[in-house]
Every structure is written in structure tokens, then in C-alpha cells.
């Protein structure tokens, strides 16, 4: 339970018509003292202390329902009796008999006090009077403000909730007492402003004795004494305060108190008493104060608060000289993102700049029937003091009168939950000195001169801070990771976080991990995110219900795709519409805040909105249309990726062996454009492949991985590629689709090989060859044989390596796949270099380079030059080898193959070592370690070996030993022959 003093639930502003009879209120309650109930002047029996505690808890919730669990916690806390629930029901039953019918109601397993007359609760009266006093003070009417505050303080009858047991009552007592003291300090401050310092001294002396550590009271006493000509006593109060704080708390007085002492010592003339009491205004205008209460746990949004506050301040204070034209700030965002909360918070901060009042209305723009502007204008005019008989009938006349009434005033208007710009235009003040804040799910792009603000979800830090403020620091600190999982599952949406946190706060037996586990299930997540009358799903339903049929279809189908966002072209495939029509639909969804524009031509859902869109698709879309939409998306990605593959590898016949597609993809004029598309779409493409684990899409999804193999080799998307390949392998195995399984295993083997996981790669490649042979699918055989040959080469099994690589070469030749043949020749060159056949190695690598050059390949030519450079090094032709490796390094860089860049740096380091240039060798080895490389731990061990040799040559033996020790562990784990060389290098260092 989280009732805060001075903060009441937002309620619809009411205006009483002059002369209307006051409704008699016979049932009244007191909580600012002993908890009492009476009907007229007749006291009512409120029962035992626990029964009064139940009544107090319900009264302080001001009509909101308290669950049975919340009431048990309020009455007994952690040590509730075994029959606590039965006791709560008994207390409620007894109170229901005492109170008027319909006052204590049962609802959703809990209880609430409803239907009370205005002023029936003394705390509510105190809150209203305190607000009235604040308004009077802001208007300069200090005399009235003091009088109202004195009346407010007179409502206390001793200690609030006196004699009421339970942790909730104790917490409320502390809050109510703190609020009372704050009101008292405010009244005393106004006493001093009106020159009543001599009278205030005695009261302040008594108060400082009763509350010795309350520094504000001591500050007021010092000022009252000083203005009474008692400077020495004022300074003595400071000395006493300083000593007391040091002894009791070990702290110094706060800055305000220290500054006051300094000003007294300096005899600051501004501290002198007012020359005369402040004159009261002759006439007080009607000043509406309709803003809902700001939430007590408002968190984050500091940049937005600052931005909006500055706009409102400029409008309110006429900073540009003589006032300015009315300012309009329009906040747009998805439902539940906190537009109203932010707007109300900012409006409260801006109140001093608008002393003539603040108007508020909920325009119901997200609902089926939005508020009519003429109705709202009538309400506003009454709030501004216009008699009913003076309010015209037509919208135009009401708008004109509204602007006339506001002329010369400084009023802030908060138009919440607007439908569109047409609804709010008549409600804008239109005069200088006034301002309007608008919230809407629709971006007000057609509202001339408006300051537009797009409100996004919270940052992870803000989200965790909000969750912590509601749940409590202790519970979150104990399970910080689970708390982060919760706010992430909420998509950092404030409404979802508030609901999740409120559920947890109301359930003392739940841990944060329990809540995180409940929200981890995407199928149930939206159902879990509801508490009382708050529900994320209901918020989204309002926006979805307002969509046109074409918009609703687009919303449903686009939510089916798993990728983080969607390109315009991909969306057109999903919807089976021309790109131009698709863009119009998507932009209209952006305007409703159900879709976000991530970048020009790219769109994304908030995570919870995506879940809701899928729920709508399951409910409203035929299964055949859902499957067809995802099939078109898969076709689009496969057709486009195959085109990119063909541009990258002219002559490579792999694309001929891919599954056919029905939906066409994009075409590109040049390779850079094609690569840009592939890497930009990487996450979406791989998500699409992983999503198609059954039915007719399985084979196409596997072939999509083949067409996008550059994503795995680059290293940038290797992990996502591996996840997709593993999922599709398992799905193909379960479906007994031998062809799809063999191809998926081939893709997976390639990923494992690049990461240096040789045993996993070899097993996947072995099974791929067996399955492909059984399926009479020759292409995977050549791919998998290449991988097995490279693995055998790295592990020193040269005869097996030659057998596998020769099989691959022959398979590529039989298929007429010239780039594949060149790749096999380059791999055989590396084998012969290891077998000390440098001349053969150079010949084969040169043959591979020649084929690549004939075909006009770039990326593959980089692989060829790399192989040729390594072969030339083994042949002792170092300068020629450096030229080839340098060319390869540049080509890998331009093709975004970072792992191959790192591997080439390693080879250049070896070349410089062989040429006795250890400084250059160390530099390239360090670059290889920083970038990464093909081959995982095995190659890392070789790089560290090269770096150690470079460092030893530079006289850095200790660093060399550290490099070799790490290298030895990696090479031994990989079963590499190079481990023996490293042991030999370490031996003399270890012996010394």
C-alpha cells in the first residue's frame, strides 16, 4: 500500500453552480487523531484496535480497493496470525453493519470504502484546504493563506491514527506528522513575511524544543529573533544547533542554515523585517487549479522535464520582452509510455509561471467516443468564472469567448489524451502569456507552431530506478539481475514496470525471481501485466480499435516477424503490397505510435506491442494468411541474399542449387550496395531463417544460411548465425528431411571451424557428407570435405587433409564451380606449405589467384592472395609475400571481413619475424589479437607464439614467457603440433 500525504488520486475537476444546494453528508470520519466515525453528531462504534486499523487503511486509500493480502500486511506485517484472512473478513462484516449501506464494498477479493460525501474525511478536507492555502500564497494573498492553514492545522486532534496498531498505521502516522510540520513551517514562514516575527518567537521556541533536530524550525527561529533585534540570540541558536547536530548525528548544519548565519553576521539588509504587512489584493480572480496530482514516485525523464519546463517558462514569464505568443508542446508516444505522468509532473513544476490558474481535461482521444470541444469549452469557461447564462451555444462562439476570458491572464492548459489536432485547436488559448501541454498517441505534425516531443520508453537505468522505488531498495538489491530481467521483459515501458512492480509489492511472499520467471513466458506476458484496473493489453487495445482495416491488417502481419526491425522492402513482402502503398500504411501506424520509425526506411515495434500484434493476428487473421506472409518474407530474403552471393562470387554455382522462390527480391547495381544490404539486414535475415523451422519453409531457411555465409565468416554475426543453423539442423532432423539436415550441418560446420572448434566442426562435416551422399546432393559434399580438409591440416593429419581437399576440388570441377575449385587449390597450397613443398604451394596458390582474377572476384581474390602470400613466405620470397598479404589485408577490410583481417595481420607478423624485424612483427601480432581471427584458440596460440618470439628478440623475456605459457595451454588443448615448438622455447626461460 502506497498512500502518500498531500498526493491524492487524480479526480475529475468539479464546478459547483452558484446557488446549488449542498448535499447533506451524515457519515463522517476522522483519522487526524483517534480513528472515529459518526453519523451527524452521533458517534459510531468502530470496534477493536485492529478493526479501527482496517477502517483507517480503507479510508486512506480514498476509494481504491485494498486486497485481502494488502490488508493483512497493513494490520500485522510479517507476523500475521494463521487466521488473519478470517479476521479481516470478520472486521469488515462488523464495520459494514455499523456504516451506511453501500459504503464498505467487497470487490475483487478485497474491500473499499466508497460513496462518501464531500468533506466526509478530515484528511481530505485538510488536503483541500492546504491546496487552497498554496494557491492563495502563490497569488500573493498571504493573509488568506495563513487563515486557511490555521484552519487546516486545527483539524488535528492529537496524534494521527492514535491507538491504531500495525505497520501501515505506524508508517502513516510518520507521514502525517511530517506533513503537519511542513504545513506549520509554511504558516510560520508566512507569519515572518507579514512582519509577525515577535509573535512567532515564542511558538518557534517551543517547537524547536519539541523537535530539536528539525533545522527548518531553527532557521525560522533565527530569522524571527534577528528581526526582533535579538542578533546575539539568533547566533546562539545556530551555535546550539551546530553542537547538537554534531553530537547527535555527526553532521554539520545544512547549507541554508549556514548561509543564514553568515548573512546575520554580515547584517544583510535583505534580512530586515518587512516595512509593513503585505497588502491583500482588492479583488481575487477565479483561479482554476485542475491539475491531477503528480505521482509521488516520478522517476527519470530529466531531459524531457528540462526541455518542456524551459518552453513553458518562456511562455509564462515573457522572457522575450512583453510576453510571447502562446506556446504549445505536444507529447506523442505509445500507450503506457508515460505521456500523462510526464505532462502532469511538468505542469506542476510550471505552476509558478502561470499564477492565474491551470486547466485540465482528459479528451478521451484513445477511446471510442472522444470529448467534444464545445463540451470541454463549456467546462473551462465555468472554471474561469463565467456564469452558465453567459456561455453561448456554438463551438465558434465558445472558443472566441474562451480566448477573450484568457486575454491578459497567464494560464496553463493541459489537454490530455487528445485524438487529433482538429480536436484541440479550439481549446488552445491563443494569447500571449498562456501555454498548452498536449498529450496524444498521434504525432501532431499538422498543429502549426507546436513544439513536438516524441516520448520513448525509459532507459534501463530509469526503468530499474522506477521499479526499485515501488518495490523497495532491499528486495531489488538482493536480486538485481532478476530485477533487470523484469524491466527488460516490460520493454522498459513505464506502465508495464509500474504494474509489475505493484504486483510484486503487494505480494510479500514473492521474490523478484518469481516475477521474472512469470514474465519470461512471452505467451503469458501480457496477461501477467495487469493489476487492478491497470492493464497493458487494454492500453494497446484502445489504439488498435481505432485503426482502419488496412492499417489493422498491416499491424497484425508485421508483428509476426521475429527480427528487431523491418525494412520497407521486407514489409512490402510481408503485406504483398507495392512499396509506395506499404510506406503510406507504415507511416500512418507511426503517427498512431503503434509503430516506431527506427531510421529512414526502417520500422520497429516495441516488444510488448509486438506481442500484442501477434495476439491480434492469432485472433483476427486466418492461419493461411499468417503462413503466407512469413513465406513471402522468407522468399524475399532468400532471393535477395542469393543475388548478393552471386555478385560477390561470379561463376559460383551454389546459387543454382538453392530452393526456388515465388516472391522476388531486390537487385543491386554494384557489390558495395549489395554488401551494405546484407550486413544491414543480418539480424532480421537470420531471425527469419530461425523462425522457419517447420513446413515448406524449412529448406528455404537452410538455403538462406548458405546464401548469407559471409555473415558467419565476417565474425560480426557469427553467434546469431550459429543459433539459426543449430535450430534448423534440429528441426530438419526431427522432420527427417535428410537434404535440409545435411545443408544445415554444413553451415554449422563452417561456423565451428571459423571459431576454432575443430572437433565440433569435424563431426558436423562428417555427418553432412553422409547425409548429402544419401540424398544425392553433391554440393554439401564439396563444402563439408573442404572443412574436414582444413581441420585435418590444422591438426597435422596431412594425408587425410590431402584426401578431403582433393575430393572437394574434384566435386567443384564436376559441378563447373570455378570459384569453388580455386578455393580448393588455395587450401591445397596451404597443405603443401605445411608439408615443406613450397614450390608446389606457390604454384597451386597462383592457379587459384588466376581463376579469381579471371572471374573478377574481389573477396575471394583476397583469400587467394592470402594463400599465395603464405606460400611465398615458406619459399623464402618474403618481399613478394608481403605484397600479396598487404593486398589481401586491404581487400578483407573493404569487404568487412574482420576475422580475415586479423588472420592476415598474424601472417604478416610471421613474415616480419622471418625477416628479423621483431618490432613490426609484434605490432601486427598485437593487431591480430585486438581484431580477432579465423581459427579460434588454435590460431590464438600461434599468434601468441609469434608475439612471444618478437618480444624475446626485443629483450622483453618476461612478457615473452607469459605469451608462450598462454600459447602452450591453447595449442595443447587444440592438439596442434606447434605445441612442441613452444615447449622448446619455454625450456631455457623456465630453467633460468
Account of the protein in words:
The structure is a single chain. The chain has 992 residues and is α/β, with parallel strands linked by helices. Helices cover 62% and strands 6% of the residues. The chain has a five-stranded parallel beta sheet with strand order 8-9-10-7-11, sandwiched between helices. A three-stranded antiparallel beta sheet has the order 1-2-3, with no helix packed on it. α33 runs antiparallel to α34 (758-774) and α42 runs antiparallel to α43 (936-953). The longest helix has 27 residues, at 167-193. The protein starts with 26 loop residues before the first strand and ends with a helix.
Summarize the structure.
The chain is of the alpha/beta class and 992 residues long.
Amino acid at each position: 500500500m502506497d498512500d502518500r500525504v498531500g498526493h491524492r488520486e487524480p479526480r475529475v475537476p468539479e464546478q459547483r453552480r452558484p446557488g446549488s444546494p449542498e448535499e447533506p453528508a451524515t457519515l463522517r470520519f476522522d483519522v487526524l487523531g483517534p480513528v472515529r466515525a459518526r453519523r451527524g453528531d452521533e458517534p459510531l462504534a468502530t470496534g477493536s484496535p485492529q478493526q479501527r486499523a482496517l477502517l483507517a487503511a480503507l479510508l486512506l486509500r480514498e476509494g481504491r480497493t485494498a486486497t485481502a493480502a494488502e490488508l493483512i500486511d497493513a494490520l500485522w506485517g510479517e507476523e500475521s496470525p494463521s487466521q488473519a484472512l478470517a479476521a479481516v473478513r470478520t472486521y469488515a462484516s462488523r464495520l459494514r453493519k455499523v456504516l451506511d449501506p453501500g459504503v464498505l464494498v467487497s470487490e475483487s477479493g478485497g474491500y473499499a470504502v466508497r460513496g462518501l460525501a464531500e468533506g466526509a474525511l478530515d484528511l481530505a478536507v485538510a488536503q483541500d484546504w492546504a491546496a487552497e492555502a498554496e494557491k492563495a500564497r502563490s497569488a500573493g494573498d498571504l493573509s488568506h493563506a495563513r487563515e486557511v492553514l490555521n484552519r487546516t492545522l486545527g483539524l488535528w486532534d492529537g496524534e494521527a491514527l492514535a491507538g491504531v496498531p500495525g505497520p501501515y498505521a505506524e508508517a502513516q502516522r510518520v507521514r502525517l506528522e511530517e506533513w503537519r510540520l511542513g504545513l506549520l513551517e509554511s504558516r510560520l514562514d508566512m507569519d515572518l513575511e507579514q512582519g509577525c516575527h515577535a509573535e512567532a518567537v515564542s511558538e518557534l521556541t517551543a517547537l524547536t524544543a519539541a523537535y530539536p533536530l528539525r533545522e527548518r524550525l531553527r532557521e525560522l527561529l533565527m530569522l524571527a529573533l534577528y528581526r526582533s533585534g535579538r542578533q546575539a540570540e539568533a547566533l546562539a541558536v545556530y551555535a546550539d544547533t551546530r553542537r547538537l547536530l554534531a553530537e547527535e548525528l555527526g553532521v554539520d548544519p545544512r547549507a541554508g542554515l549556514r548561509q543564514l548565519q553568515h548573512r546575520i553576521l554580515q547584517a544583510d539588509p535583505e534580512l530586515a523585517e518587512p516595512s509593513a504587512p503585505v497588502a491583500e489584493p482588492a479583488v481575487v480572480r477565479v483561479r482554476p487549479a485542475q491539475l491531477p496530482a503528480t505521482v509521488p514516485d516520478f522517476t527519470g525523464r530529466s531531459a524531457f522535464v528540462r526541455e518542456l519546463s524551459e518552453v513553458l517558462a518562456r511562455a509564462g514569464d515573457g522572457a522575450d520582452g512583453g510576453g510571447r505568443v502562446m506556446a504549445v508542446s505536444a507529447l506523442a508516444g505509445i500507450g503506457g509510455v508515460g505521456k500523462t505522468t510526464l505532462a502532469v509532473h511538468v505542469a506542476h513544476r510550471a505552476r509558478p509561471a502561470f499564477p492565474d490558474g491551470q486547466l485540465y481535461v482528459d479528451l478521451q482521444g484513445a477511446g471510442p467516443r472522444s470529448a467534444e470541444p464545445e463540451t470541454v469549452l463549456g467546462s473551462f469557461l465555468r472554471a474561469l468564472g463565467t456564469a452558465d447564462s453567459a456561455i453561448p451555444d456554438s463551438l465558434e462562439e465558445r472558443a472566441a469567448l474562451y480566448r477573450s476570458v484568457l486575454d491578459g491572464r497567464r494560464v496553463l492548459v493541459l489537454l490530455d489524451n487528445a485524438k487529433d489536432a482538429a480536436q484541440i485547436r479550439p481549446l488552445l488559448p491563443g494569447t500571449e502569456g498562456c501555454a498548452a501541454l498536449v498529450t496524444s498517441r498521434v504525432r501532431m505534425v499538422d498543429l502549426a507552431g507546436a513544439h513536438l516531443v516524441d516520448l520513448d520508453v525509459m532507459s534501463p537505468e530509469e526503468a530499474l530506478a522506477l521499479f526499485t522505488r515501488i518495490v523497495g531498495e532491499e528486495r531489488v538489491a538482493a536480486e538485481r539481475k532478476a530485477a533487470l530481467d523484469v524491466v527488460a521483459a516490460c520493454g522498459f515501458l513505464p506502465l508495464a514496470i509500474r504494474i509489475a512492480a505493484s504486483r510484486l509489492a503487494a505480494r510479500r511472499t514473492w521474490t523478484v525471481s518469481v516475477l521474472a520467471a512469470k514474465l519470461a513466458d512471452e505467451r503469458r506476458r501480457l496477461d501477467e501485466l495487469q493489476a487492478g484496473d491497470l492493464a497493458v493489453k487494454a492500453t494497446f487495445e484502445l489504439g488498435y480499435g481505432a485503426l482502419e482495416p488496412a492499417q489493422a491488417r498491416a499491424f497484425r502481419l508485421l508483428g509476426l516477424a521475429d527480427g528487431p526491425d523491418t525494412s520497407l522492402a521486407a514489409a512490402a513482402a510481408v503485406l504483398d503490397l507495392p512499396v509506395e502503398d506499404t510506406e503510406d500504411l507504415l507511416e500512418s501506424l507511426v503517427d498512431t505510435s503503434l509503430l516506431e520509425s527506427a531510421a529512414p526506411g526502417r520500422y520497429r515495434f516495441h516488444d510488448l506491442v509486438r506481442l500484442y500484434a501477434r495476439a491480434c493476428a492469432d485472433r483476427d487473421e486466418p492461419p493461411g494468411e499468417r503462413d503466407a506472409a512469413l513465406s513471402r518474407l522468407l522468399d524475399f530474403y532468400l532471393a535477395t541474399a542469393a543475388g548478393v552471393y552471386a555478385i560477390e562470387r561470379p561463376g559460383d554455382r551454389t546459387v543454382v542449387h538453392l530452393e526456388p522462390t515465388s516472391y522476388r527480391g531486390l537487385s543491386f547495381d554494384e557489390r558495395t550496395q549489395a554488401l551494405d544490404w546484407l550486413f544491414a539486414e543480418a539480424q532480421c535475415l537470420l531471425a527469419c531463417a530461425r523462425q522457419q523451422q517447420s513446413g515448406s519453409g524449412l529448406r528455404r531457411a537452410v538455403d538462406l544460411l548458405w546464401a548469407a555465409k559471409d555473415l558467419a565468416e565476417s565474425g560480426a554475426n557469427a553467434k546469431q548465425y550459429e543459433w539459426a543453423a543449430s535450430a534448423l539442423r534440429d528441426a530438419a532432423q526431427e522432420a527427417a528431411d535428410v537434404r535440409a539436415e545435411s545443408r544445415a550441418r554444413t553451415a554449422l560446420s563452417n561456423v565451428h571451424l571459423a571459431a576454432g572448434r575443430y572437433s565440433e566442426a569435424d563431426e558436423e562435416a562428417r555427418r553432412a557428407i553422409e547425409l548429402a551422399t544419401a540424398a544425392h546432393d553433391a554440393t554439401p559434399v564439396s563444402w563439408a570435405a573442404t572443412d574436414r580438409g582444413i581441420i585435418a591440416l590444422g591438426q597435422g593429419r596431412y594425408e587425410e587433409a590431402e584426401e578431403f581437399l582433393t575430393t572437394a576440388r574434384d566435386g567443384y570441377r564436376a559441378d563447373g564451380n570455378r570459384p569453388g575449385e580455386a578455393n580448393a587449390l588455395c587450401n591445397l597450397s596451404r597443405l603443401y606449405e605445411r608439408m615443406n613443398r613450397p614450390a608446389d604451394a606457390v604454384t597451386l596458390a597462383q592457379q587459384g589467384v588466376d581463376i579469381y582474377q579471371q572471374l573478377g572476384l574481389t573477396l575471394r581474390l583476397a583469400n587467394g592472395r592470402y594463400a599465395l602470400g603464405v606460400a611465398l613466405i615458406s619459399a623464402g620470397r618474403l618481399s613478394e609475400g608481403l605484397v600479396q598479404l598487404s593486398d589481401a589485408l586491404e581487400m578483407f577490410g573493404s569487404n568487412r571481413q574482420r576475422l580475415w583481417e586479423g588472420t592476415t595481420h598474424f601472417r604478416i607478423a610471421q613474415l616480419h619475424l622471418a625477416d628479423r624485424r621483431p618490432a613490426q612483427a609484434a605490432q601486427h601480432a598485437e593487431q591480430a589479437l585486438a581484431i580477432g581471427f579465423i581459427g579460434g584458440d588454435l590460431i590464438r596460440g600461434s599468434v601468441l607464439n609469434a608475439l612471444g618470439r618478437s618480444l624475446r628478440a626485443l629483450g622483453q623475456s618476461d612478457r615473452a614467457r607469459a605469451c608462450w605459457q598462454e600459447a602452450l595451454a591453447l595449442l595443447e588443448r587444440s592438439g596442434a603440433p606447434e605445441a612442441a615448438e613452444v615447449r622448446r622455447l619455454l625450456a631455457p626461460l623456465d630453467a633460468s
